[in-house]
Amino acid sequence: MEELLTLQETVEDKSFTYQPTCFDEYLGQSEVKTKLQVYVQASTLRQEPLDHLLLFGPPGLGKTTLAKVMAKELNVNLKITSAPILERSGDLVAILTSIAPREILFIDEIHRLPKPVEEILYSAMENFCVDVIVGQGAGAKSIRLPLNPFTLIGATTKTALLSGPLQTRFGIVERLEFYEPEDLAEIVRQNADFFKIPILPEAALAIGKRARGTPRIVKRLLRRVRDFAQVYKHACIDIEVVNHAMKFLNIDEDGLTKLDRQVLTHIIKDFDGGPVGIETLAAMTGEDRDTLEDFCEPFLIRQGLIQKTSRGRQVPHKKILYLRRRLLGENPEIQDSMF
Ligand SMILES: Nc1ncnc2c1ncn2[C@@H]1O[C@H](COP(=O)(O)OP(=O)(O)OP(=O)(O)O)[C@@H](O)[C@H]1O
Ligand SMILES: [Mg+2]
Questions:
Q1: Ligand 1 site-directed mutation target among 61, 66, 195, most atoms within 8 Å of CB
Q2: Ligand 1 pocket, residue 20 CB under 6 Å
Q3: How far, in Å, is the centroid of ligand 2 from the Cα of 60?
Q4: Is 163 in the pocket of ligand 1 (CB under 6 A)?
Q5: CATH topology of domain 258-338
Q6: pLDDT at position 337, please?
Q7: Which ligand is nearest to the CA of 157?
Q8: What are the sequence ranges of the domains in the chain?
Q9: Is 91 marked active-site?
Q10: How large is the average pLDDT for residues 181-198?
Q11: Which of 94, 106, 164, 274 has the most CB atoms in a 10 Å sphere around its CB?
Q12: Does position 314 have pLDDT exceeding 50, yes or no?
């Protein structure tokens, strides 16, 4: 059973989209999954709580989903909360003291815990107890409250911001990797089955290739493609429907969005390949720096289309001709040979 302590779940987590509930339904991430399956089995055999687990990785890769799967597989209750709403130590103490043996507490965005709240976690994680102050002034005293042995699952997109003392208290630390297009195609098929809409394998793969290695994005793209299929009365999602929808969404066959293409175009056209500062790119595209850094850059860097240098962002030399051809429609070899 799962208990929601916050309202921070997004609309896609509701029952009208498919949600994996066991390891078999959680596709891809085979290395992490294999390890976690062993730990889950061992903890079940010993009837002990699973060691504390830190999951990190970019948004939408399945950290929250994995925590839910783990709880189901361990057959224990899951309490979900998020660091930004745990403002005072008392908020966390109230949750910790209500945890039953072997239950899982999931703290999302754990790098955002205020320091005093984080310090409560240290003894809770290590010794299953918390120290609280009761009374005020001269009469105030510290009392130690025992807790039921539990498992903390922390999720973060930014490990660099997680303090050392907190990080070392996790017995298991796993990083989720971006998904391969084939794994994303599987997720597309899984969701298409849930929607009861037939899809051809090459259409599923075409969607998978455009999803920036991210399940959340692949699910969103499928929902849009499904809209097109239904409105234009296609009984089955084929490559034609996918291409039609992608053209409409302005996503090219490499998965580049309009914003990605704008960023790349500015670097190659206005700055001769760079380097150019992120603030300048933000001003030129009219986007804020965070969007460029969190959404655009990780994908462009992974695709080898930009590099981060101390002087700004640049397009690697070997990609400049390719991008000039792709984005500016130039035929650089001919132009180069003319001068
Ligand atoms: N391995 C997977 N197999 C199938 N579906 C997945 C998988 N991973 C994630 N999903 C789906 O992708 C969506 C995003 O996953 P989730 O919310 O767990 O990501 P997250 O890492 O917690 O993101 P955030 O950092 O934004 O909190 C969910 O709808 C989930 O069902
Ligand atoms: Mg999440």
A1: 61
A2: yes
A3: 7
A4: no
A5: Arc Repressor Mutant, subunit A (1.10.10)
A6: 40
A7: 1
A8: 2-175, 181-249, 258-338
A9: no
A10: 97
A11: 106
A12: yes
252: phi > 0 → left, psi -120 to 50 → alpha, else beta; which?
Answer: beta
Mean pLDDT of 220-237: 95
Is-catalytic flag, 63?
A: yes
Summarised one tens digit per residue, pLDDT across range 203-214 is 999 999 999 999
Q: What percent of the chain has pLDDT over 70?
A: 93
Question: Which amino acid does the sequence have at 184?
Answer: L
pLDDT for 14 equals 53
pLDDT, tens digit (0-9, with 9 covering 90-100), for 277-305: 999 999 999 999 999 998 899 999 999 99
Two tokens, residue 218: 């692949």
User: Among 108, 219, 226, 313, which one carries the catalytic annotation?
Assistant: 108
Q: Are the CB atoms for 237 and 226 separated by under 8 Å?
A: yes
Give the domain 181-249 fold. Answer: Helicase, Ruva Protein; domain 3 (1.10.8)
Residues 264-284 have pLDDT tens digits of 999 999 999 999 999 999 999
CA angle 42/60/249 to nearest 5° reads: 150
Residues 330, 324: Cα–Cα separation, whole Å: 6
Structure-token pair, residue 60: 């939408």
